[in-house]
Amino acid sequence: MLWLRLGDNELIQLDHVISIKKQEPQGIEMLFTEPNGKRILTFADQADRNRAFDRLIENLVKLRMALE
């Protein structure tokens, strides 16, 4: 199982995530397998959102490469 830590109080199991994408104006949307399973992470501005999204993608790519 793969987990994503969001702040100090929340963990998300990535096995249940269908997609992760940027949402305008400054959010990241995560869709889950469960019905109505949607989570939107908001950021102070687009630059913060873009940095978080890029780091998330980089880490997921590294993790996938390590598991292969």
Give a structural overview.
This protein has 68 residues and is α+β, with helices and mostly antiparallel strands. Helix content is 32%, strand content 38%. It is built from 1 helix and 5 strands. It has a 3-stranded antiparallel β-sheet with strand order 3-4-5. Strands 1-2 form a two-stranded antiparallel ribbon. The longest helix is centred in the last third of the chain and has 22 residues, at 46-67. It is globular. It starts with a strand and ends with a helix.
Defining traits:
alpha+beta, two-stranded antiparallel ribbon, 38% strand
List the helices and strands and how they pair.
Elements: E1 3-6, E2 10-13, E3 17-23, E4 27-32, E5 38-42, H1 46-67
Antiparallel strand pairs: 1-2, 3-4, 4-5
Overall strand count = 5
Question: Largest sheet, if any?
Answer: 3 strands, antiparallel
Tell me the series of helices and strands, N- to C-terminal: EEEEEH
**Oligomeric state of this protein:** single chain
Low-confidence runs of at least 5 consecutive residues: none
Strand percentage lies at: 35-45%
Question: Helix amount, in percent?
Answer: 25-40%
**Count of separate DSSP helical elements:** 1
Distance between the termini: 15 Å
